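Forum: Protein Structure Q&A
Topic: Joint prediction for protein chains with partners

I've read a bunch of threads here and the consensus seems to be that you should model interacting components together rather than docking separate models afterwards. I'd like to see that in practice. Below is the full input, 282 residues plus whatever partners are listed. Could one of the regulars post the assembled result?
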Amino acid sequence: MVPASYFLIVSAIIFTIGVAGVLVRRNLIVMLMSVELMLNAVNLAFVAFSRALGSADGEVIVFFVMTVAAAEAAVGLAIMIAVFRNRETVNADELNLMRW
Amino acid sequence: MPLWLFIFLGALSVISALGVVIQRNPVHSLLALIVTLMTIGVLFIGLGAVTVGFLQVIVYVGAILVLFLFVIWLLNLQSTPMDSGHLALKLLGALGAAALVAELFAFFVQTPLAPPAAKVASDYGSVLQLSNSLFSDYLIAFEVTSVLLLAAVVGAVALARRAPAEPESERAEPRAARSEGW
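Posted by a regular:
Agreed with the consensus. Here's the joint model:
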C-alpha cells in the first residue's frame, strides 16, 4: 500500500503547477484550466486523507468540489464568450478597463 | 496499488500538468489537462474510491473539458499567438510559485510521514457507502448544490446571450430601409 503522504506530495506539486499557470499565463482559457488543475490537486488530497482515515466524508467533499468546478467552468466560459465578443481578445493583459 | 504503478501515474500526472502550463496552443494545453485528469481519476480508483474515480472521468473529461474545447473552437483561439505578457510579470509569477514550493516543502519536511492506512470498511468507495453519507449527513449541502447548478445555468445563459436590444434594432433597421426602398 502506498502511504498517503506520497499522494499528498503529488497533490502539492500539481497544485503549485496550477498556481504558476494562473500567475504566468495570460490566456484566460489557460488560466481557467490552471484553476481546474488546482481543484483536482485538492480533490486528490481529499481522497488520500479519506482513505487514510477510512471515512467517506472526503469523497463526498470531492463530489461537491466537482459540482462547483462544473458551475465555475460554465459561468467562466460564458464570461469569456461575452468578453471576446466585446473586445476580440482573451488576453488578460489587454483587458485593462478596471485597472489603474 | 503497487508502488511502481503509483510512481508511473504520479509522474505522468505531474508531467502533463506541466504541459498544461507550458504549451502555447490552448488545444494542446487542453489535451494535457485531459491526461492529467484521467490520471488523477485512475489514482482515485487506485486509492479505492472507485465511484469518485469514475465520476471524475465522466464529469471532468466528459463534460467540463468538452465545454472548454467548444469554447476554444467557437472563439477560434487555436491559431492565435498568445501570451505576449511582460517578462517581469512572468518572473514575479514564477517567484510566487517557487515561494509556495518552498513553503510546502518546509511543511512536508517537518511533518512525519502519515501512518499506514487505517482499517477501512470492505465497502469503502462503493456507491452505497458514498450515497449513505451523501443523503444523510450532507443532505442539505446536496440540496443547496442543485440551487447552485440552477444559478450557474441561468447565469451562463444570461452572460453568453447577446443583449436583446442590439440585434433587434440591427434587424429592424435594414427591414425598414428595405420597405422604404421598395
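Residues 45 and 59 of chain A are 10 Å apart (CA to CA).
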